[in-house]
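Chapter review: from sequence to fold.
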Amino acid sequence: MRRALRTAGNRRVEVVPSGGFQLFGEPPRDIGVHGRGGDEHPTLPKSFSNAIQADADNVSAYSNRAFALIGQKRYDEAIQDCTDVLNRQANNVDARRTRAFAASNKGDWKTAMDDYNAVLEARHGDVDGLRGRAYVEMQTKDYDKAIADYSEVIKVKPKDMDGYLKRSRLYELKGDLPKAIADCDPAPL
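The token string follows.
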């Protein structure tokens, strides 16, 4: 299902189910986990703000605006949007994961870790949650836990080269070169 939104300049934005967006007359763009899109379209947050103004209970608009704000490195605003969603829907895992991502980009490791733990409690094996938590663990130098999380990612997605490469880097940081080299071997893929 698509939801059409109007911008101040009468350009229409379509929010697509994948969490991406499409400006009317242009190919779909992926906002994605990393918030791509907000930097390409500086008016995109305003488009979602207009949708929120029209319907204050539109949690999709808050979540999509948060992604756009992350793309513009406006992390505090993205965190607030996700918090607004969580105030309406306390069990919204996607909003909690997005808030964790924004907090980790900001360097707020405690908030990020708390949110990633909540995501993984609600959805055991959530690959994006595991990756995010592993990133925070790596930044806080908790390498053993980060290795365990990347190992879980690899169990869920055995052909995920990114999981192997990140785990390899962690083994290298721990000084375990044989395991680091083994993870770089393409044979398991």
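Two observations follow directly from the output. The longest strand covers residues 3-6. Confidence is low (pLDDT under 50) at residues 1-38.
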